[in-house]
Amino acid sequence: MAVVDTPGLDIMFLTCFGVPRQHRGEIWKFLSEQYLLQQTVPSRPPSNPTPYKELLKQLTSQQHAILIDLGRTFPTHPYFQAQLGAGQLSLFNILKAYSLLDPEVGYCQGLSFIAGVLLLHMGEEDAFNMLKFLMFDVGLRKQYRPDMIILQIQMYQLSRLLHDYHRDLHSHLEQQEIGPSLYATPWFLTLFASHFPLGFVARVFDMLFLQGSEVIFKVALSLLGSHKPLILQHDSLESIVDFIKTTLPNLGLVQMEKTINQVCEMDVSKQLQAYEVEYHVLQDELLDTPPTLNQQQRAAQLERTNQSLRQQNLDLLEELQVSHARVCNLESRVEALAQSEGQLKQQVSALEEEKTQLATTIAHLQKLLTSLGINADLEGQTLP
């Protein structure tokens, strides 16, 4: 996605040096409109043209998965904290509607963070339209497709870029058998929103709307490069991955500005294209080349992989149990709210009926008093 040709350089300046928060949603919508106007070849539109409000009336098979992730999306942010509060309900609506709009992708972990960031800067329907723009027009939906092939290519591209720009860091990570998939996958799937401060994430979105998906690579490269001295101090797989996942995201204001400025100055579009082709060539060669590792080396490599997968499975099982309990709690609350609503409706109906009966009684009493020659108001007080 090329830089949009906005009136003057004001938009580019604002995007690189900070968009005022109160105008951010409008700027994002403006940039998306400019991008669409400049496309010589329109992107493939969604196969489902159903309007947003109509999508909300339909049911989705992804409801359970979406409910699980609601409580894990910005859990400390006031707008999303309350279970089934306004923020979570709007987030649920957007994710439900998108899962119906794009059945191939449906709902994928990570989308809730992107939708959440959009919701913090614009209304619900506008946020849905911007999510649709990012997925279909900017092309983010490719990395969420079930086969995840595009995500694998992105990890390879990031590794090659790291080799180009920070060879010593790339070698250090390679020695510990640390590939980008061990730390950068959530960066791509949530656009950094799951681990980084929201102020920084908003700046990333500014650049994303201006320059397109290559911004994700540039931000990742800048973050790794600026923390290179600290990463090189760690000499084990566990400590390096832990540092990148937990310490690196705690950006100060100066570091954030440095990262964004570097992103504005970098251009990796040609390299990304070359490395995508290179990935496919290597994959074809691997299919035609016999394995070179001896049996013992392959067994050791498989054992390391299996050990890592076992630990991941244990972590996921624990998350699943917690999430299942949370969903059961949410579903119980929904059922209780539905029962409460039914009871309230019955009470309202009973009160309406009682009101009608009282009005009839009052009318009857007024008529009786009038026939006796007594004037009375509605409250039964005798008038002079």
TrEMBL record:
Keyword terms: Coiled coil
The keyword Coiled coil appears for this protein: yes
Organism lineage string: Eukaryota, Metazoa, Chordata, Craniata, Vertebrata
Occurrences of domain Rab-GAP TBC (ranges): 18-212
Protein name, per record: TBC1 domain member 1
Keyword field contains Coiled coil: yes
Regions annotated as coiled coil: 292-368
UniProt gene name: TBC1D1
Pfam annotation, one family: RabGAP-TBC
